[in-house]
């Protein structure tokens, strides 16, 4: 499994807040993601109906997941492929390495795969003596930088053009490319030059899966670079790594989800390449692999089926939640310390690695609800984060000060009259501290929040409940 440092969230977040280059890179990317998504959805009047249909498809599939996985396996075998079941990350890596060894592989190309990142397949293959080359441009950049992805859609979103130029100049000299390039088209062409031979030399190609189709045994990937097609057709062996929740019953169901995924992810009506792979090469096919393997990864997903966190398995990995998250927008993906950042990562990481390892992540959220609003499959992320906070409190995983503060608040909240008097006093005090400009520049026990010149608007002078009654509403 990819090495996790989620327990270092606080330290990494502070470092990220001080990184001015990171701030500017994240700001540019966030504006683009949010604006393009909004424009794409404004042009789709049936968006809400599509969301409802997508939720129904995913809920139905999860309810009968064992049935559809068996149907998928049968369909893959009919098409001449092989299906392997991996209970955890270690088993997934062992299976992939063994397939590559049986193929006599020395070089492996890899399309974008979050499950591959999750289980740490690159490290396993390299430890077995094989060269692994990421072919997605963003993944290739962070591979050169020896960094994990900071975003599930744009892995190198935290990198500036100057940093990428330096990376290419440093690593591409061995291929005879010694000129330092700075313009984006030139950098892209240089990466193409290097990767072209890697595609031709590869013995095995590994891709992820956006969807697995139970009725046909097909695997669907969506890309904008065409690297996935070259990865799954040129090598003699194609391996698909996918979580068990990726299966959907029919191709028609997949089309519904495909109308939502690119719009939510990149603001496109459809990605440049939507590729279906169904088994190995058949007689008469002009290209394609000689062998086709699918590695279905559980790694904690079955446990999620048993409780309220089942809803997280609806996720189609569009990244909209993190694009709209103020916390992710401030600290970036690396602060979260594992493969999945942002709101989705704050739920998935504690469930996969354990709350003790990732105890800070459920609290790295303002509960503003934007992630739930923009999720194309209506995952109630704030509710799931609250559930994790409740578990954390039950297992006494927070700091002692935080636990005592929660107990005090709970005691006060159970006494409505006293609660109203205390909150009224707090609001009036904060209003006085805000002065004529109505801005707070410091509060006891909140010094870290105000660090760097941040200010907080002071309350207007009355509590919400008093304002509610003043407007003629029932308390």
From TrEMBL:
Residues 305-336 form the 4Fe-4S ferredoxin-type domain. This is Iron-sulfur cluster-binding protein. The keyword Membrane does not apply. The keyword Electron transport applies. GO terms for biological process: lactate metabolic process. InterPro entries: 4Fe4S_Fe-S-bd, 4Fe4S_Fe_S_CS, FTHF_cligase-like_sf, Helical_ferredxn, LUD_dom, LutB/LldF, NagB/RpiA_transferase-like. SUPFAM superfamilies: alpha-helical ferredoxin, NagB/RpiA/CoA transferase-like. GO terms for molecular function: 4 iron, 4 sulfur cluster binding; metal ion binding. Keywords: 4Fe-4S, Electron transport, Iron, Iron-sulfur, Metal-binding, Repeat, Transport.
């Amino acid at each position: 499994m990819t090495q996790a440092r989620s327990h270092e969230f606080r330290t990494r977040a502070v470092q990220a807040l001080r990184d001015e280059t990171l701030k500017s890179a994240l700001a540019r990317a966030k504006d683009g993601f949010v604006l393009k998504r909004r424009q794409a959805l404004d042009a789709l009047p049936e968006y809400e109906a599509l969301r409802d249909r997508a939720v129904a498809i995913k809920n139905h599939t999860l309810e009968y997941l064992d049935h559809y996985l068996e149907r998928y396996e049968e369909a893959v075998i009919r098409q001449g492929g092989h299906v392997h079941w991996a209970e955890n990350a270690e088993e997934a890596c062992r299976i992939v390495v063994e397939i590559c060894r049986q193929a006599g592989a020395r070089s492996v190309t890899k399309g974008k795969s979050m499950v591959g990142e999750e289980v740490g397949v690159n490290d396993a293959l390299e430890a077995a003596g094989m060269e692994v080359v990421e072919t997605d441009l963003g993944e290739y950049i962070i591979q050169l930088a020896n960094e994990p992805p900071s975003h599930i859609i744009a892995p190198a979103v935290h990198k500036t053009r100057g940093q990428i130029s330096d990376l290419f100049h440093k690593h591409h000299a061995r291929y005879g490319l010694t000129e330092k390039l700075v313009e984006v088209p030139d950098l892209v062409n240089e990466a193409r030059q290097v990767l072209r031979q890697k595609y031709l030399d590869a013995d095995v190609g590994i891709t992820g899966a956006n969807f697995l189709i139970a009725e046909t045994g097909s695997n669907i990937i969506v890309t904008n670079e065409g690297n996935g097609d070259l990865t799954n057709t040129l090598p003699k062996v194609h391996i698909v790594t996918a979580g068990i929740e990726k299966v959907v019953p029919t191709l028609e169901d997949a089309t519904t989800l495909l109308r939502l995924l690119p719009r939510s992810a990149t603001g496109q009506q459809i990605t440049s390449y939507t590729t279906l792979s169904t088994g190995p090469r058949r007689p008469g096919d002009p290209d394609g692999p000689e062998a086709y393997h699918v590695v279905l990864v559980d790694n904690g997903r079955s446990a999620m089926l048993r409780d309220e966190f089942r809803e997280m398995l609806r996720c189609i990995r569009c990244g909209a939640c993190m694009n709209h998250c103020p916390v992710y927008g401030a600290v970036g993906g690396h602060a979260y310390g594992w493969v999945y950042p942002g709101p989705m990562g704050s739920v998935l990481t504690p469930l996969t690695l354990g709350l003790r390892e990732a105890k800070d992540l459920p609290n790295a959220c303002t509960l503003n609800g934007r992630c739930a609003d923009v999720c194309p499959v209506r995952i109630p992320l704030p509710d799931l984060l609250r559930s994790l906070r409740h578990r954390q409190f039950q297992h006494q995983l927070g700091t002692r000060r935080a636990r005592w503060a929660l107990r005090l608040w709970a005691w006060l909240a159970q006494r409505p009259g006293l609660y109203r008097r205390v909150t009224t006093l707090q609001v009036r005090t904060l209003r006085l501290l805000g002065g004529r400009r109505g801005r707070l520049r410091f509060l006891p026990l909140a010094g870290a929040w105000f660090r760097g010149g941040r200010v907080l608007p002071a309350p207007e002078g009355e509590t919400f409940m008093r304002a509610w009654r003043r407007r003629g509403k029932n308390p």
